[in-house]
């Protein structure tokens, strides 16, 4: 009995890890090559559905609503209104009570009651039966890759900054039809999203693809990236769809340079690999140059920073943009080389070419960044109050 119980718990845990946390084979993102994003709203219809529809109409935006069966049956007028305004309607199950899903016969009833090609489990919860039931019912499991966090009791201004920080081309954004803060969040975020070049569309227009094991691993690692950003005060250099750098202020670890004492404040460049992963070489070069203009803006905002740098097997390629290179000490070189090989496989599905495995330090001094990449006119309105380009704690 104890063995059977243990195996059952293990099976439930593995199902949730693989299919909810990683999202394996779920439809959770679109192509990273174009700045289309899908806004999705769970739990409706609600008393705020009409206000939400008015807000979306005002900005000319279409979205996807995952409706809960019991609520939809109570307000068929709102369901019809959502459809009439050109939004996509999909299935969020019959109830929003996760405990019921732990019992297979109730989960089947929950999933079979609703219509729609896409089904989103409440809270993304998966049991060992969820994918089997979806296959029998011919439903696609829809998850997300960006959370609006509108269920948290945080100021909408903070939620807006966080959403814009993590929004990417192809993102499926999780929001909710019900909380009052969702309306305020969208009032703040939508104009800025549009100004930055994002175009919100329905899930069908986004055309998401099921997550392969490699893409599922990328999704699973997002939480680690968020924790690193908060802990180290990492900021974005520009919030546009293809601005490719995050910045971490820290002492320069490289060789002594004329006029720069040891420990000079610098920006370490973190490449936004997920934004660049599907770009062709010419597209990536163009995005790299434009992104360096955003780095130059950050330098102007912080006169203390004297240079920018990174450590990567791609250091030699950075010479194309004026960067200088230097060798790394043995241990940092090994760590950076292994990390570079892993991320190359993770984001591009490739392995390092012969002779390009070892990482090097690459850097460019402040004056040279400003000379080569003078900041362009901002493409978006000033950010809301708070640290610009940084996610909230």
From TrEMBL:
InterPro entries: Glyco_hydro/deAcase_b/a-brl, NODB_dom, Polysacc_deacetylase_ArnD. Keywords: Carbohydrate metabolism, Glycosidase, Hydrolase, Polysaccharide degradation, Xylan degradation. GO terms for molecular function: hydrolase activity, acting on carbon-nitrogen (but not peptide) bonds; hydrolase activity, acting on glycosyl bonds. The keyword Amino-acid biosynthesis does not apply. GO terms for biological process: xylan catabolic process. Residues 35-100 form the NodB homology domain. SUPFAM superfamilies: Glycoside hydrolase/deacetylase. Residues 375-393 have a biased composition (Pro residues). The keyword Nucleotide-binding does not apply. Residues 372-393 are annotated as: Disordered. CDD domains: CE4_NodB_like_3 (cd10959). It comes from the Bacteria. Pfam families: Polysacc_deac_1 (PF01522). PANTHER family: 4-DEOXY-4-FORMAMIDO-L-ARABINOSE-PHOSPHOUNDECAPRENOL DEFORMYLASE ARND-RELATED, GLYCOSYL TRANSFERASE-RELATED. This is Putative xylanase/chitin deacetylase. It comes from Thermus oshimai JL-2.
């Amino acid at each position: 009995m104890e063995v059977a119980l243990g195996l059952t718990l293990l099976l439930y845990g593995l199902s949730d890890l693989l299919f909810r946390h990683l999202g394996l084979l779920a439809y959770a993102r679109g192509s990273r090559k174009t700045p289309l994003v899908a806004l999705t709203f769970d739990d409706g219809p609600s008393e705020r559905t009409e206000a939400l529809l008015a807000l979306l109409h005002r900005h000319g935006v279409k979205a996807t609503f995952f409706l809960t069966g019991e609520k939809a049956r109570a307000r068929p007028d709102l369901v019809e209104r959502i459809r009439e305004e050109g939004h996509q309607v999909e299935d969020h199950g019959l109830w929003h009570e996760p405990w019921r899903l732990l019992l297979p016969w109730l989960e089947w009833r929950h999933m079979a009651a609703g219509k729609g090609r896409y089904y989103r489990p409440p809270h993304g919860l998966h049991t060992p039966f969820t994918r089997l039931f979806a296959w029998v019912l011919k439903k696609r499991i829809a998850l997300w890759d960006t959370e609006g966090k509108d269920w948290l009791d945080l100021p909408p201004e903070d939620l807006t900054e966080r959403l814009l920080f993590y929004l990417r081309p192809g993102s499926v954004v999780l929001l909710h039809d019900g909380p009052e803060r969702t309306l305020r969040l969208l009032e703040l975020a939508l104009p800025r999203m549009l100004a930055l070049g994002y175009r919100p569309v329905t899930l069908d227009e986004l055309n998401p693809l099921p997550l392969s094991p490699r893409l599922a691993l990328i999704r699973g690692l997002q939480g680690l990236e968020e924790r690193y950003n908060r802990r180290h005060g990492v900021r974005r250099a520009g919030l546009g769809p293809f601005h490719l750098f995050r910045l971490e202020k820290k002492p320069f670890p490289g060789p002594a340079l004329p006029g720069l004492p040891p420990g000079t404040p610098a920006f370490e460049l973190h490449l936004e690999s997920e934004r660049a992963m599907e770009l062709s070489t010419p597209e990536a070069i163009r995005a790299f140059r434009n992104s360096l203009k955003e780095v130059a803006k950050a330098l102007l905002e912080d006169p203390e920073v004297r240079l920018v740098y990174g450590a990567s097997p791609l250091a030699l390629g950075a010479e194309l943009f004026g960067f200088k290179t230097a060798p790394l000490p043995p241990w940092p070189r090994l760590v950076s080389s292994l990390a570079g090989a892993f991320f190359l496989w993770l984001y591009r599905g490739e392995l390092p070419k012969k002779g390009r495995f070892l990482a090097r330090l690459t850097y460019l001094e402040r004056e040279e960044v400003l000379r080569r990449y003078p900041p362009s006119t901002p493409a978006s309105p000033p950010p809301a109050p708070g640290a610009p380009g940084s996610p909230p704690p």
